[in-house]
Amino acid sequence: MRRRRGLARGISIVMVALVNLIGAGAAPVAASTLDADQLTLEALEGTTFQVGSRRYQGPIELTAYPQGIAVVEAVELDAYLGGIREVPFSWPEETLNAQAVAARTYLAWTFVRGRIGDQRRYGYDICATQFCQVYVGAGAAGLDDGDRWLAAVAATSGEILIHEGRPAQTLYSSSAGTRTRANQDIWGGDPKPYLQPVDSPEAGVTPYEEWTVEFPTDVFGRILRRGGYDVGGSIDAVSLDVPPEGTGRSRVLVASEDGIAAIPVDRFRAVMNVYGPRLYPGSYPAPRPGLRRWHQTVMSYTFDLSFEPGPDITVAGERFLPSDDLPELGTVTVTGEGWGHGIGMSQWGAKAMADLGADYAEILGHYYGGLTPRDGGGVVPDIVRVGLAVELPNARVIADGPFRVLIEGVPAGVLPAGDWSFPLTNRGIEILVPVDLPPAVLEVLGRNLPR
Questions:
Q1: Are residues 295 and 395 in the same domain?
Q2: Angle at 95 between CA 91 and CA 98, to 5 degrees
Q3: Residue 115 domain boundaries
């Protein structure tokens, strides 16, 4: 979307009039005021911004793209790390220290690698979800034991893991089970020496020591077909092809009327986790003993498969019924351990090691091939641009105090606390003001709107 220039003067007039109106005590409703292609919201006097269910200190940038609005926070390094919520803050101090170094290193690795995909498209360095690192913003410090996490960030200040002069790709996940996985065994590619399998001493500690999920074969086949795999009307066998550790990816083999479908284990898990709940929300994820449900349909890449065929309903090799009319023919059972990809550091394993007396350097060295924390120097950035959301038709931001608005980087006025909406129109981002503006003032504002 082409940027419009020369907006600041007209918008400043609008903002001054708006602030005067709010000061006069107007009643809260929504009214349209102006359009812009990029807005920056800067907090004043301790204000925080709520985007979705999380709070951020900002500045918050809203930028219009053809696909929707991108919401990005520009935050200082320690504030970013302080907003990470990857493990319970009540866990042992050495576990928190290890997590802080792993998170800082992963951020540095992301910077050195450069922006890809949505990062490049929407101008941010790292996302705020589990696809990068779970970042909850300014609200993290106020959680129970949040001060312990901030202490871990401070105690390990500047420390990262370095391999061959570059930040390591410090992948981590919740629980590996009995043993972590090699990066090449899950996603293929060249092996990284610091992402190779090691035993994880979390038995009796992790709540994900074992999990089981069952699929009737017709359900199993329907989920796979929705995920794009050509599985025939009836399934005759299901097995797992597992090469020796470190030599490549496992595959799920599904024999059906249409032949054998060989599904890489990473794709199998993705399909089951996306389409299982979508097609059968009452069944998947499966019930968990003593609790509600497991977090995902297939919790990890470390699992075994068993296939129990149904009754034989053929005579002389011929089925009585066509494939579409067959009853449920058997069960596929998936039994596994751990939660997550299982590569690199296991967070529950790190807790188990700390419980046994290991310090954070020992924990990191165990899971990352002997790498030890070092000063990251200039590799770690001072300011982090975090992608909070992208492709939104309407960005909603709730401010709990006053904030300054900038248009294309030019200060345009100060607005009060409120529930603000910023929908995307064919002219850019529209600001919906949470006050009831008198018609005469709306007319004045309209004359001052940039076109």
A1: no
A2: 150
A3: 8-204+343-433
